[in-house]
Design brief:
- The protein is mostly helical.
- It has a domain at 46-75.
- It is built from two helices and two strands, in the order ββαα.
- It has helices spanning 25-28, 48-72, and strands at residues 6-8, 14-16.
- Strands 1-2 form a two-stranded antiparallel sheet.
- A hairpin with a 5-residue loop joins strand 1 and strand 2 (14-16).
- The protein is elongated.
- The two termini are 54 Å apart.
Length: 75
């Protein structure tokens, strides 16, 4: 439930304010340039599988280092 907003009319009465879209992303866009999406042509995106593999390897490597340090007695 939201509070309905009213604005004054030239005759001295009140009228409901126009309802704007509920999409919060409209507020984030630049009204000056009407920019919908900022594109960067210099970025080369990686494959999803390569990204998942690299993050998985990083997690396994971090876990291995923690276990090794605990086993050695450093931690």
């Amino acid at each position: 439930m939201s509070l309905k907003l009213y604005r004054p009319t030239p005759e001295g009465g009140l009228e409901p304010a126009p309802v704007e879209g509920q999409d919060y992303r409209r507020q984030l866009r630049s009204r000056r340039w009407n920019a919908a999406k900022f594109a960067n042509p210099e970025v080369n995106t990686a494959s999803k599988w390569i990204t998942v593999l690299l993050v998985g390897l990083l997690a396994v490597g971090t876990f291995a280092v923690l276990v090794a340090f605990y086993w050695i007695g450093i931690w």
